[in-house]
């Protein structure tokens, strides 16, 4: 079964399609290159499902991504569709430790997403930035003051708690 067949199968629910694709990626039945090519040519809901499949996959295997796929999800932090933004942020959060030299662009885009009107977009940005915070001392020193400012401005306690926990760990 290929990606097109998965998405055209009307009998399979969207969440199940994401799991199927994640399994394909983890088992090597679909390459990352094939997945991002397909996602790039797809409409936003399908693209979001593909990125969510990457998110599921990187939860299980954080070192899964290659540079091209990391760059793809980084680019999609600036997508119009909120779901694409938040799924991309979760992938970045899961995998950033494997790309310590390539975090400037993701950090910049994640910080932009901290002011998004959507709670889930802001929550996902908080998750990713919190994961990035302690990757190395140089990043910590540059990012910590920004995260403190963002935390002060954030109105949702659920998001504030993510920042507060990360800041507490970083200041030890």
Structural commentary:
By secondary structure, the protein is mainly α. Helix content is 72%, strand content 0%. The chain is built from ten helices and no strands. α7 (104-113) runs antiparallel to α8 (119-133). The radius of gyration is 16 Å and the shape is globular. It starts with a helix and ends with a helix.
Radius of gyration: 16 Å
The SSE order reads HHHHHHHHHH
User: What helical percentage do the residues reach?
Assistant: over 70%
Briefly note the structural class of the backbone.
mainly alpha
Give average pLDDT, whole number. Answer: 96
If helices are DSSP runs of H or I spanning 4 or more residues, what is the number of helices? 10
Largest sheet: none
Strand fraction equals under 5%
**SS elements, strand count:** 0
Multimerization status? single chain
- How far apart are the termini? 50 Å
Indicate the low-confidence ranges by residue numbers: none
Q: How would you sum up the global shape?
A: globular
How is this fold's topology laid out?
Elements: H1 3-8, H2 14-26, H3 32-40, H4 44-60, H5 67-75, H6 82-95, H7 104-113, H8 119-133, H9 137-153, H10 157-170
Keywords:
globular, 172 residues, mainly alpha
Brief overview:
This protein has 172 residues and is mainly α. The chain is built from ten helices and no strands.
């Amino acid at each position: 079964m290929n990606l097109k067949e998965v998405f055209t199968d009307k009998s399979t629910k969207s969440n199940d399609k994401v799991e199927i694709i994640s399994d394909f990626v983890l088992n090597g039945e679909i390459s990352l290159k094939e997945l991002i090519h397909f996602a790039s040519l797809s409409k936003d809901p399908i693209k979001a499902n593909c990125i969510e499949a990457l998110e599921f996959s990187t939860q299980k295997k954080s070192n899964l991504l290659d540079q091209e796929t990391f760059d793809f999800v980084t680019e999609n932090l600036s997508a119009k569709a909120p779901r694409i933004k938040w799924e991309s942020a979760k992938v970045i959060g899961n995998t950033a430790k494997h790309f310590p030299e390539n975090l400037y662009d993701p950090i910049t885009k994640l910080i932009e997403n901290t002011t998004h009107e959507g709670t889930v977009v802001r929550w996902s940005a908080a998750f990713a930035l919190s994961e990035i915070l302690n990757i190395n001392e140089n990043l910590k020193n540059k990012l910590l003051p920004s995260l403190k400012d963002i935390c002060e401005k954030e109105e949702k306690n659920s998001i504030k708690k993510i920042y507060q926990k990360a800041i507490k760990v970083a200041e030890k």
